[in-house]
Amino acid sequence: MAKKIEILEVSKRKLMGQGLGSCSMDELEDIDSQLERTLKIIRARKTQLFKDEIEHLNAKCGFMPMLLESAPAPAPVPVPPPQAKERGNCSQSTKSWEVETELFIGFPQMRCL
């Protein structure tokens, strides 16, 4: 029993990335493939949990997916073409934004605005 526990602990350490210096290439490839398989299982489970939660929330709120399908597509937003800038006009086309800030050093106080 103690030997099995030791083997499991060594395997766990290797999966956590500890003590890999003594591993052969085959062992490293086995660890890599095992981690990849486990990661795929975890991602699939996470995706399923999110889908279940979305379905639960949709049912709770009374959301009908068919309403979304029948809704018209939003109109595309027109993008203006880029304009060539002239050297002298840089200062004229640049917008200036002034922001007033206040520096306060110390403990926060309750302030009425």
What keyword list fits this structure?
single chain; 113 residues; mainly alpha; 4 helices; extended; DNA-binding transcription factor activity; MADS box transcription factor-like protein; TF_Kbox
Helix content: 40-55%
Alpha carbon gyration radius: 30 Å
Biggest β-sheet strands, sense, barrel? none
Please report which band the strand proportion falls in: under 5%, 5-15%, 15-25%, 25-35%, 35-45% or over 45%.
under 5%
How many strands in all? 0
Straight-line distance between termini: 69 Å
Q: What is the overall shape?
A: extended
Structural class: mainly alpha
Please write the string of helix (H) and strand (E) elements. Answer: HHHH
Give an overview in words.
This is MADS box transcription factor-like protein. The chain is an all-alpha fold. It has a domain at 24-68. 54% of the residues lie in helices and 0% in strands. The protein has four helices and no strands. The chain is extended, with a radius of gyration of 30 Å. The termini are far apart. The mean pLDDT is 78.
